[in-house]
Amino acid sequence: MIPDARRLPWIAAAVLLSPCSIPSQEEPPDPVEASERAIRAIREGGATDDLERRTEPEVIRAIAERLESGDPWQSAEDRKRAVIHFCRNAAAEQGDLLRALLRNEPVGVAYFAVLRLAAVADGDTLRRIGAELTQERNPSLQRRLLDVLGASRKEAAREEAGAAVPFLESGDPEVVKAALGTISEQRVGSATEKVLRLHNDGTEDREIEALCMRTLGRIWDTRSDARRPPDQEKPRLQALLAARMISLSPASTEEACEAFLLIQAPEEIESFLGQFVPEAFPARRLIVRAAGREGFDPAKGRRVHEAFLSSPDRRLVGEILLESPHDLDPERLKELLEDGKATGHPELPGDVTVAVCAAIRLERGGKKDPSLFPKTPEERAALLDRWKRER
Q1: H or E element at residue 161
Q2: Within 10 Å of residue 41's Cβ, how many Cβ atoms?
Q3: In angstroms, rounded to a whole number, what is the distance separating the alpha carbons of residues 214 and 4?
Q4: Is 203 exposed, middle or buried (0-12, 13-18, 19+ CB in 10 A)?
């Protein structure tokens, strides 16, 4: 799963709250003795210094028994450490306790339960979470339940993810973002129309607008290894048309361009490139940038970048040659060694032509290390001459 913006805040909170500053202790010579010592401390409401290294099932069960009993702990810090340790190591059969912690713990601690439920919950637990979500009225808990369904890779989570669709109409922007994330991760094709409506009519929030476009791209991503929703050509075409209209408009965004590229089938992308690469259309840089985003379909990204090497915009060509993360075809690069047109890039020396950029790309591959850029005109000319001889 590719991480998205809506999850960053609670991931940061979880990291900050995790017990990572505990002094290092030497491992006792006998792990059995260390485990028994940890269990005795837990039963007394405490936590040993090496608790985080005690991942034995009996230690995790001891924590669960203490938490379920409701007995007090020696300190709030001991309890927090025990809860986090339990959440990190709980087994699938301890899903009921994880669900209780998800509901009752502060956000930074509760999201350890969210992550563990997403990883280990079985189908029955995920179906219960889906049912709970439909009845939940607390926005904070709605977000937690949505995130479990979004992060889980189990088929049951995908089946339950449709429960996220009504939350696109929530009055809480954070709940809307969580719902979009779940719909995106589980590729809920039936949500297409409501996502489009939210983008067009339901918000002035720039972040939500961007997430709507990314969600549509994720749902209808045509790469061969993607988990695709059942064959639903009509909503795919609706999403494609909307993304195209925005991408090629004055209000174009990188997210819309990314969705537009991802949704297109191979024959559609070839038609688009054939029609638009020769044109200096306004969104060309956003299209190229979207095709180079982290996590973008590498095969499609390479095809887009190689096609735009034929663009009349030589500055754009230079940018692709120097910045593309994709493995560009060396034979295509060698064809550009005779292109003596200047890139006109304001951050490059005036003598840097497309040919020089092609030679630099051939020399350093996809590396962006500035130290590999020839520093003087003489060095650049020598590099170009060498590659012309070697081709």
Answers
A1: none
A2: 20
A3: 10
A4: middle
Residue with tokens 């993810």: 161
Mean pLDDT across the chain: 90
CA distances from 323 to 289, 342, 364 (A): 10, 17, 11
- Inter-residue contact 242 to 249 (CB < 8 Å): no
| Confidence (pTM) | 0.84
What pLDDT band is residue 348 in, cutting at 50, 70 and 90?
confident
Distance between CA atoms of 331 and 235, rounded to whole angstroms? 39
Question: Where along the chain do its domains lie?
Answer: 1-19+29-120, 335-391
Query: Tens digits of per-residue pLDDT, 295-328?
Result: 999 999 999 999 999 999 999 999 999 999 999 9
Closest of 133, 142, 137, 222 to residue 178, by C-alpha: 142
| Joined tokens for residue 181 | 């994330």
Q: Give the H/E segment covering residue 245.
A: helix 233-247
Beta bridge partners of 267: none
Q: What was the pLDDT predicted at 49?
A: 93
